[in-house]
Here is the input.
Amino acid sequence: MTALRKLTLTELRLFLREPMSVFFAVLFPSVLVAILGNVKAFRKPDPALGGHRVIDLYVAIAAIFVLAMLALQAAPVVLATYRERGILRRMSTTPVNPVRVVAAQLIANMLIALVAVGLVLAVGRIAFDVSLPRNAVAYAVAFLLTSAAVFALGLFVAAVAPNGKAATAIGSLLFFPLMFFAGLWIPREVMPPVLRTIADLTPLGAGEEALRAATTGDWPGLGPVAVLVGYLVAFGLAAARMFRWQ
Amino acid sequence: MPVIEVSNLNKRYGERVAVDDVSFTVEEGEIFGILGPNGAGKTTTVECIAGLRTPDSGGIRVLGLDPRTDGAKLRRLVGVQLQESQLPEKLSVAEALDLYASFYPDPADWRQLIADLGLTAQLKTRFGKLSGGQKQRLSIALALIGRPRVAILDELTTGLDPQARRDTWQLVEAIRDKGVTVVLVTHFMEEAERLCDRLALIDAGRVVALDTPAGLTAKVADEQRIWFRPSAPLDDRLLGDLPEVTSVTRSGPRVLVTGREDVLLAVVTVLAREQIRPLDLRVEQATLDDAFVALTGRSIDTDEETTV
Here is the structure.
């Protein structure tokens, strides 16, 4: 297991050497919460949002933002670039299977996500009195399930992208509409019914719903769980089938 | 027992035949060259040996193991330096070595390895900031870090300047001197001539010759060519009558004499007797390039492009 540990450490180290990735995936979501929290109107309960404050919603949306940034923007580019530059191929001449690089990349990203989401929750709690998840176990389950679904999608992007540039393009093409449906620009609560239905069927929309349910103390509903499992299975299998090592 | 045995290897990509019935053996402790023009099937051949590609037919044994079924064992015993393979830009030399060392059960001391390769000053340098020669040396270090018994080096010096190329040759000889069997893929005649104990000349997927560099050149051309400018008028017949000489021709002030092995001694003896000094004396022997031309009917392509 020393190889996997070393690979994971290497991936973490390389991630920290990309200032843009560190900023957008780790710091920006908390900055977003801080900025929105400073708008006075967003700190008042809103009947249109079921009595929640805007800032309450954005803590969950910021957590989703972290996962989307890592899974759709950072990881696919790294893996597609590794393939493009023959790094995976080189590894397949050693006793260590390049599958471990993918595993190390996922583990490293999950560790980074834990730190970034922890930061978001801390900023929300300390600065704006946003309650921490009331059902911690349900939150952990929702978090893992959403991560699994969105990283499966990210691995699929890494599998189909011929090179790093293409992975960046495909990742961005997915990131913005999916974040829209997660409520980054308008919360799902105030979306027109048609948009809301579509949002419920997207991985990030379902993920946000699952996280929010756990935040208020409930277990995620069957709907979002089914959607997330669906994305995990469909894109996980497709990625596993289509991923090329060289 | 040979270290590597390749017998009747075949590999095609769709319609294109990349490797056509290739057979050779590599003995323990030698530098074995696979020489040929770009696209001749050299890389495909060694990739089959390294277990990176599956041949369509034919047998491969490396240290008694079959790359198709004993891949895991083999990867511990064979170090591979691949053409066009890189590392993450922002990974430092020391980090790369430490990482790759963790892949092997009994890795070499990478600090010693890197000292031998002259990269100690670059330990903290990131891969993206290394020069071409330094990248190649790191690549060699990574191929050797698992203490392999066989090292496969593919187009090691392509893209390097002449000085870096010569430095790299010394490294390859040092590897062999440590008892590692080396398989060297190249399209540089000079490199093959200088380094290889034996070599397989490959063209269009086929082995056209298999011999030592000297054996190859001797086989196709035992002719020597002597160029000189006589210091005093010279009667060509004096040389033409010598049994060792096959032809005497003039090109302006210069004389070209061709002949067998001992022609130089015979010509110089006659010139000394006539008290004529041969100015600008030049002796040309057949090179591997001549051997290649004689065997295939065309010159090896020596452009810097690499095959994929």
User: Anything to note?
Assistant: The first strand of chain B starts at residue 4 and ends at 13. The two ends of chain B are 32 Å apart (CA to CA). Residues 302-308 of chain B have pLDDT under 50 and may be disordered.
